[in-house]
Amino acid sequence: MKKIFVFLFVLCVVVVGYSQQRSKSEFQINPHMLEVYSQAEIDQMYANDFARLFTLNFEMTNFACVAGKLPGDNHIEMQTLDNYAHAGVVTDEAEIIRTGYINPHLYDFKQDNFRSTVYPLRTSGYYIIIPPKNQYDRVLQANLEQYDY
User: Is a pLDDT exceeding 90 seen at residue 52?
Assistant: First the structure.
């Protein structure tokens, strides 16, 4: 059942991606990008390397998600999130659960090619899920192809 759900989700994203072309001016930067990159760096990537900017922005928005259920049997379970935080990063699980967002640039997340990677939170019943690389790359490419740059 979960595999069907993931497949339908990916299929919907791809279909929507091919349905229309967008110009660079319609591109929206995730506000969390400013936590990692300066506005000058973002502006430079926008002007000179839009594909890289899009990829970084897509990663910031879609690489890791917070879930209340495991993604079925096809996953790898890792240790708790604190074990993968960069030096000096304090993990606020309550904030992560409340907002449903985690900045993937603050952690050393691993990504399997074919299985989801699951990082359990200390709060019971909540997980950070990283999609399989092959699915993530397909969705990323389909979304990038929407833009006429």
Answer: yes
pLDDT for 54: 95
Other C-beta atoms closer than 10 Å to the C-beta of 76 total 15
Contact yes or no for 134/123 (Cβ under 8 A): no
pLDDT tens digits along 66-93:
999 888 888 999 999 999 999 999 999 9
d(CA 29, CA 83): 29
Please state the φ and ψ torsions of residue 73, each to the nearest 5 degrees.
-85, -20
Query: Tell me: the pLDDT tens digits for 122-149?
Result: 999 999 999 999 999 999 999 999 887 6
